[in-house]
Amino acid sequence: MGVFCFFRRKYLEILFEIFFEKLTILCKDILKIMEKGKWVSQVQELFELLNSLSVRDKDGKELEPEKGFQEWLVKTFEVRNSQKVVYLIGNGASASMASHFSADLAKNAHIHTQVFSDLSLITAISNDLGYEHVFEEPLRRRGMAGDMLVAISSSGNSKNILGAVKLADSLGMESVTLSGMSFDNPLRKLGKLNFHVSGKTYGAVETCHSAILHHWMDLVAESSGGK
Q: Across residues 30-53, what is the average pLDDT?
């Protein structure tokens, strides 16, 4: 009886090891399929968001994206030809995009650009006046009629962005906004051109904003004859 129990236990142990090994392989295969599915889903989501891009003018009228980009292009060349300035603002990842495209516009299209990314300026204004004034305050001293402000905010709710766009309007500047998430976010109603993607996550919105800005930059560069 003891020998029988011993062999039965060994048999069950071997059977369990084989089962566990097969199960592990199966789980790895399932994870690979899931990961591939996630990537395909991610690409599909971005395509759908960009394909449903909403562009509105200052009166809230919906424009075809091509028309919106064309108007943005015309305004950009008006700024360059009149030797005005394109200011770009954003927080976090949007601040990185502002710096990126400020450099691209200056290098590829010979447009005078500015971003408010100096650490001393940011900390001084934030400490003395509050972070909500970090863009508005320097813009008040530098912005002029005919300049352009490009305001980037994933949520469209950032107080420092909203304040800067309102100031730009009072100064007679052109203003272009990029926002996401809620359709009724306040930033979407403030610019003279307003680009909106309905992504629900910061990653999706930021990726789409980068694509929108690259398309604008490409249009400017191509229309400049590659100069």
A: 81
The torsion angles phi and psi of 181, rounded to 5 degrees, stand at: 60, -120
Question: SS3 string of 104-123?
Answer: HHHHHHCCEEEECCCHHHHH
Distances in Å between the Cα of 139 and the Cα atoms of 36, 72, 157, 198, 210 are 46, 21, 19, 29, 23
Look at strands 193-197 and 54-57 and give their pairing.
antiparallel
From CA 137, how far away is CA 162, in angstroms rounded?
13
pLDDT tens-digit readout, 43-69: 899 999 999 999 999 999 999 999 999
Chain-centroid distance, C-alpha 54: 14
pLDDT at 38: 80
Residue 225 to residue 163: CA distance in whole angstroms: 36
Are 146 and 82 within 8 A, CB to CB? yes
Task: Give the N- to C-terminal CA distance of the chain in Å, as an integer.
Answer: 91
Task: Tell me, rounded to whole angstroms, the distance of Cα 185 from its chain centroid.
Answer: 15
Please give the mean pLDDT across all residues of the chain.
89
The answer to whether 57 touches 192, Cβ cutoff 8 Å, is yes
Q: Give the separation between CA 105 and CA 76, rounded to whole angstroms.
A: 10
Q: Let me know: does 55 contact 118? Beta carbons within 8 Å.
A: no
Q: Could you read off the pLDDT of 156-215 as tens digits, one per residue?
A: 999 999 999 999 999 999 999 999 999 999 999 999 999 999 999 999 999 999 999 999
